[in-house]
């Protein structure tokens, strides 16, 4: 379990460029669940992801992993990063080896695993992210943006972290590629019983794949809860520069117009069921 207690982070402390990116936030990432983290640009989402595995240390407050402060004196950050894996928003910044296979192997090698275990993890991670045997032998810099993202994700999955944090994992992908990547990540979580944190601007993606949602605005927690609970506050989300799923907009407007529907629906399937019930009543 990952827990934030009164965490703040300030960039440029003591300079004219001082900026509070995270402002006294407290929340828990529940174990074994998918938590979606949403917010507009500059809301503090990416800073939170860097605080989660110790790449940044809080200006104040505590980040706890299974009850222990990851920034406490004597804590080995290297061990923390094996437990909390982070995939950056721009995967090309995370790739550097000669081949895809070597890039995926980098993390397991640093964990001190045997060659046999490393190879097993490479194939396991490649399978989950849809990387072919042929692609394993290629240079990662020959790949498309979507393929690079798969390799970056595979490199973190190969370390089998307890918590996997992904910053915009499906950005720029077509609908098919987006569903493949997010679907495989959720399958990975179910099979390994680990914890997944997905940071995204897409309300549809967050609503479809998350068990819980944390909404950020200006460095603070705006809303948190299940997707239904968060999206029921659509007016609050919109007033803070955030969108809601298109189907939520439609059902919400129908409810305002006097129709007996659930205005908090956030998936196409649930919206279709609501509309079907409406037509049956008519």
Structure report:
With 282 residues, the protein is α/β, with parallel strands linked by helices. Helix content is 42%, strand content 22%. It has 12 helices and 10 strands. The chain has helices at residues 45-52, 77-83, 100-110, 115-129, 133-136, 145-157, 175-192, 203-209, 227-231, 234-239, 246-256, 268-281, and strands spanning 2-11, 19-29, 34-39, 60-65, 68-69, 84-87, 163-167, 195-199, 212-217, 220-225. The strands form 2 sheets. Strands 6-7-8-3-9-10 form a 6-stranded mixed sheet, with helices on both faces. A 4-stranded antiparallel sheet has the order 2-1-4-5, covered by helices on one side. Strand 4 and strand 5 (68-69) form a beta hairpin. Helix 3 runs parallel beside helix 6 (145-157) and helix 4 crosses helix 6. The longest helix has 18 residues, at 175-192. The chain is globular. The termini are far apart. The mean pLDDT is 87.
Helix tally equals: 12
Helix-strand makeup class: alpha/beta
Flag low-confidence runs.
Answer: none
Subunit organisation of the chains: single chain
Q: What is the succession of H and E elements? A: EEEHEEHEHHHHEHEHEEHHHH
Q: What fraction of the residues are assigned to beta strands by DSSP? A: 15-25%
Output the strand order for the largest sheet. Answer: 6-7-8-3-9-10
Q: Which of globular, elongated, flat, extended, rod-shaped describes the shape?
A: globular
> How far apart are the termini?
48 Å
- Mean pLDDT comes to 87
Outline the biggest β-sheet.
Answer: 6 strands, mixed
Portion of residues within helices: 40-55%
